[in-house]
Write a structure and sequence with these properties.
The chain is an all-alpha fold. 66% of the residues lie in helices and 0% in strands.
């Protein structure tokens, strides 16, 4: 994704009722998009415009390599407005391979608080991190995980135990 401003005509095309126009706009974003389009893509995902559009958005989000997009992904994960698409956002977070280690607490909280499938996606992001924060940063997180483990259901308990091993 390049660093340019939002093209209003392209934005309008993304919100078109014509699936082909939306797909064409998504293809343009693959080459000429920037991080400012991410909220628009999340809005489109939230609007449930059909499986084909959703699949292309997920494919695009899963290939993003610009580290400047990390705060946008994190903000989306923390915003309850996007709760219904949180699992999809987490999936693209581990697919795109960006370094979310500075935000590990967000993912730990999602493992603890979300339903099992969403928690599993958050766990996968953590599991795929190449660099973990310092022991000093991890200590309170491990205490939080241990506390959640005491009241967790069996499937969630497994994820939490595995987090403690990481």
């Amino acid at each position: 994704m390049n660093k340019t401003k939002i093209n209003e005509a392209l934005k309008k095309q993304l919100f078109s009722a014509d699936t082909e126009k939306v797909l064409a706009a998504i293809n343009v974003l693959k080459d000429k998009g920037n991080k400012d389009y991410l909220p628009i893509l999340f809005e489109l995902t939230l609007a449930e415009n059909g499986a084909e559009i959703d699949k292309e958005i997920q494919k695009l989000l899963g290939t993003i390599k610009d580290k400047e997009t990390i705060p946008v992904f994190i903000a989306t994960l923390q915003d309850d407005k996007y709760k219904t698409i949180r699992k999809k956002v987490l999936t693209v977070c581990w697919q795109n391979g960006l370094d979310y280690s500075d935000h590990i607490e967000v993912f730990v909280d999602l493992v603890i608080s979300e339903d099992w499938e969403t928690a599993f996606e958050a766990f996968t992001v953590i599991e795929n991190m190449e660099h973990f924060p310092s022991a000093e940063v991890m200590k309170p997180l491990k205490l939080k995980i241990a506390g959640a483990l005491k009241v967790a259901a069996e499937q969630k308990a497994y994820l939490l135990e595995e987090l403690l091993k990481l």
